[in-house]
Amino acid sequence: MKQASALAPRLQAAPATNDGWKMLLKKEVLRFWRVAFQTIAAPVLTAVLYLMIFGHVLSGRVEVYPGVGYVAFLVPGLVMMSVLQNAFANSASSLVQSKIMGNLVFQLLTPLSAWHWFVAYVGAAVARGLVVGLGVYLVTLLYAPPRAAAPLWIVVFALLGAGLMGVLGLLAGLWADKFDQMATFQNFIVMPMTFLAGVFYSIHSLPGVWQGLSHLNPFFYMIDGFRYGFFGVSDVSPWLSLAIAGGSLLVLAALTQHLLKTGYKLRS
Asked: By C-alpha distance, which of 136, 179, 137, 163 is closest to 42?
């Protein structure tokens, strides 16, 4: 009995540390990195195919900005589109997959806070989005010379866009209980809003009504601001784009944090 009493203090649970989010972040990064052919190479190939097809058809026929050829104009749009779509897909698919496979319960048993979950899932989404975007950009150097009129704006909007879509993907993952629900979110919200955000055209080439609708699309501001970093010209002020994209990120982040704290569709 005395020996058992002496050992008792050693059996008490150790206080939780704040490093658990690092392990979750590492798990999420390794999740997409281990299947890089599917999660990185395939999106890069898709973007390059868009560039080859649209660039071949419209190169030399369209000049969106003075001194900027269509292929050069297309490159930032494709890079940002890849960043947005892959950041969303990473956080959304990871959470939904954990729900379906039933291993989410093991994460719920950990002392990780809602903020730790948020940082890990969104951080991994940002990492995947940026890696894919960089891959697309490096390949497109074969088709258009590098340009960077304002490099800081490129970095700011790349991080902002990847972060916003990572948060949106986490929100979709919380809402969805199966893959077809997540696919509905992606196919009917994310993909249309991305394609209609000025990836392949300037919104000034649209009729007035469609221009007005484009200004209601927050994805447009991320792509337009990102493109400003390459050419120093854009359809709207980069400061306006920064304000709208940043505001959207803050609103979605606050909503997602609230849902994580309440355990929305996590604890049933």
From this structure: 136
CA distance 173 to 212: 31
Half-sphere exposure of 92 (CA within 13 A, CB side): 28
User: What CA–CA distance (Å, rounded) separates 196 from 219?
Assistant: 8
Per-residue pLDDT tens over the stretch 210-263: 888 888 999 999 999 999 999 999 889 999 999 999 999 999 999 999 999 998
User: Rounded CA gap, 241 and 244, in Å?
Assistant: 5
Distance of CA 268 to the CA centre of its chain: 28
Three-state DSSP state, 68: strand
**Tokens 């939904």 -> residue:** 96
Beta bridge partners of 204: none
Q: What percent of the chain has pLDDT over 70?
A: 90
pTM tops 0.85, yes or no: yes
The partner residues of 68 in beta bridges, in order of sequence, read: 65
Per-domain residue ranges for the chain? Answer: 36-262
Question: What's the number of CA atoms in the CB half-sphere (13 Å) around residue 19?
Answer: 2
Query: Which tokens go with 192?
Result: 């249309």
